[in-house]
Amino acid sequence: MFRVGLVGYGYSGRTFHAPLIDSVDGLALAAVVSSNRDKVHNDRPGCPVLSLAELTADPAIEVVVIATPNETHAPIARALLNAGKHVVVDKPFTTSVGEADELAAIAARQGRMLTVFHNRRWDGDFLTIRSLVADRTLGDIVEYESRAERYRPIVRDRWRERPGPGSGIWFDFGAHLVDQALQLFGQPDAIRADLAAQRGHGAIDFFHVVLRYETLRVVLRGSSLAVAGGPRFQIFGTAGSYVKFGWDTQEEALKKGERPGESLPWGQDPQSGMLAQPDGDGIKTIEVPNLPGDYRRFYEQLREALLTGTAPPVTIDETRNVMRLLEAGIASSASRCDVSLAR
Fold first, then answer.
1. Burial annotation 106-138 (CB, 10 A radius, 16+ → b, else e)
2. CA-only gyration radius of the chain, Å
3. Phi, psi of 83 (to 5 degrees)
4. CA 261, CA 247: separation in Å to the nearest integer?
5. Inter-residue contact 9 to 18 (CB < 8 Å)
């Protein structure tokens, strides 16, 4: 049994990490670092609430999850790795590639596992798309569009929406969309990004990003002012097209207090995608049910990696590539030019 510490009990720590850790055999949430002791104890009576220094010094806690504001990821991870802890960092990994490289070097020197919680690799619709791409149902993919759109016209007074390092939806939803695209298609040749604060006085709340491959174009879009957004995914290939509306259901289920293993069927998104393919002189459309999603897979793979010494669920090279694109997107938007990603 691996004893796990959780640093941060805000939205991410409370909604995602704590319940997912609880649901995985072989992991036990042993302590939480939070400034709101009452909130932790209301949810988890008897759970120790420690300071970061106390958790760092506790030899019984082997793994620590960091679910704090993005600009604090690097200093907290640095301290924990130097104390000999295995570390999970909520996405985005850091606020820069330089910080990512520094943490990777510390983890290697200390012989500790370091990974990043890119949970949306286990969205049901994304797993379905991975399958369609892998078995070439759509032929050669020529255009892939992924959207993260919502309607929040008022800038809220929270770190995610205040200007600052790592804030805004490019580092929030954008990190998910970039990671999913890299999982499907690998590193692009170049990026062109348009980032904006459309609500006027907050952090980045809009992005339109094009990743350029030889023939493929990947379009990533995010907005905070979309009353009626477009499809979550839209993919065009030489043998067909696929369109999917709506988000994976797991986040909403977790927000409602539902838990994996208790609520069945877990991770089943009822909003199917539609596949369109040529059929003689016409077009045939086929409903494509989603594969079940399951965010537990991240923590199950983490447990196996700790037990066997195999690769973690998200490798440092993978998450460094995400950071590289997030950073390049900022540079592209500032210069209004393509940024080459040639190595």
1. bbeebebbbbbbbbbbbbbbbbbbeebbeeebb
2. 20
3. -85, 0
4. 21
5. yes
CA distance 178 to 210: 11
Residues of the chain with CATH 3.30.360.10: 124-297+324-340
User: What does residue 183 show for φ and ψ, rounded to 5 degrees?
Assistant: -65, -35
Domain 2-117 grouped into CATH 3.10.310.10: no
Look-up of token digits 């520094």: 102
Q: Which of 8, 67, 71 is nearest to 39 (CA)?
A: 8
The fold adopted by the segment(s) 124-297+324-340 is: Dihydrodipicolinate Reductase; domain 2 (3.30.360)
Provide the token pair at 59: 């030899």
Q: How far apart are CA 303 and CA 235, in angstroms?
A: 34
- Whole-angstrom distance, CA of residue 116 vs CA of residue 298: 9
Name the amino acid, one letter, at 248.
Answer: D
Range(s) for CATH 3.40.50.720 in the chain? 2-117
- Please check whether residue 189 is in contact with residue 341, taking contact to mean a CB–CB distance below 8 angstroms: yes
Tens of each residue's pLDDT in the chain, 343 residues: 999 999 999 999 999 999 999 999 999 999 999 999 999 999 999 999 999 999 999 999 999 999 999 999 999 999 999 999 999 999 999 999 999 999 999 999 999 999 999 999 999 999 999 999 999 999 999 999 999 999 988 888 877 778 888 889 999 999 999 999 999 999 999 999 999 999 987 899 999 999 999 999 999 999 999 998 899 999 999 999 999 999 999 999 999 999 987 766 899 999 999 999 999 999 999 999 999 999 999 999 999 999 999 999 999 999 999 999 999 999 999 999 999 998 6
